[in-house]
């Protein structure tokens, strides 16, 4: 009787995306935290949120973004609620864009990921811009370099999440 209420497919999918979240956090903290290019590190969590929103819809993207934002804020020790507030918005908006405005192919995914990375970098640099003693150009340079260094990882996230979701792109 209890199994009639629970949708086993959704539970399985949620567990798979929880594994994706753990893999993203693992790669971010173990591998990418040690690799710097021009003094910045890649940040791939927003791309993963966009991928889940793209292939599972806005609600799944928002929930995945909320959970990934919570775990990221606990792990990275930056502004306490920044990623918890930004990632659900990114997940929901990317799901809404994929549902109503753009197709789910890589080209669209790339540009939505670029926008998500830019939004995340802009929100991360707000506290530095608000400080009166910080110059604007170095902060913008770091934000731009972080966004550009994170973009190649869209290839590594798009294709596995597309195959996990089972979305047929031949339509």
Q: Strand pairing plus helix content: what structural class?
A: mainly alpha
Order of helices and strands: HHHHHHHH
Please, what is the average pLDDT? 86
Q: Summarize the amount of helix as a percent range.
A: over 70%
Poorly predicted spans: none
Beta-strand fraction estimate:
under 5%
Radius of gyration: 17 Å
Largest sheet, strands/sense/barrel: none
How many helices in DSSP terms? 8
Q: First CA to last CA: what distance?
A: 37 Å
What's the shape? globular
The tally of strands reads 0
Could you give the topology of this structure?
Elements lengths: L1 H4 L2 H25 L12 H12 L1 H19 L5 H19 L5 H25 L5 H15 L2 H13 L6
Helix pairs in contact: 2-4, 3-4, 3-5, 3-6, 3-8, 4-5, 5-6, 6-7
Explained architecture:
The chain is 77% helix and 0% strand. It is mainly α. The chain is globular, with a radius of gyration of 17 Å. The mean pLDDT is 86. It has eight helices and no strands. Helix 3 (45-56) runs antiparallel to helix 4 and helix 4 (58-76) packs antiparallel against helix 5.
Pick out its properties:
171 residues; mainly alpha; 8 helices; 77% helix; 0% strand; globular
State the gist of this model.
This protein is an all-alpha fold and 171 residues long.
